[in-house]
Design goal:
By secondary structure, the protein is mainly alpha-helical. Helices cover 39% and strands 0% of the residues. The chain contains one helix and no strands.
């Protein structure tokens, strides 16, 4: 393994240079600054209810397994 080269102080840091960046595999349509999609409050409530329902079902399944005892 080679040792890292010291940075040349005459050159700007790589993050501050402007250069063309092409998308790689799986990056199609990606942007540098993604913006969240607008969501209506009704959609957020529906998603929240779905998460709560899933949590309740998982807890009930876990409780049923505990009360049933060892499998077999």
């Amino acid at each position: 393994m080679t040792a890292p080269q010291p940075r040349n102080p005459d050159r700007p840091a790589p993050s501050s240079t402007k250069r063309e960046v092409r998308a790689g595999p799986g990056d199609a349509g990606a942007s540098d600054r993604p913006t969240p999609l607008p969501k209506a409050p009704r959609e957020r409530d529906r998603g929240r209810r779905g998460v709560i329902l899933l949590l309740v079902l998982v807890l009930l399944a876990g409780l049923a397994l505990i009360l049933r005892g060892p499998l077999g």
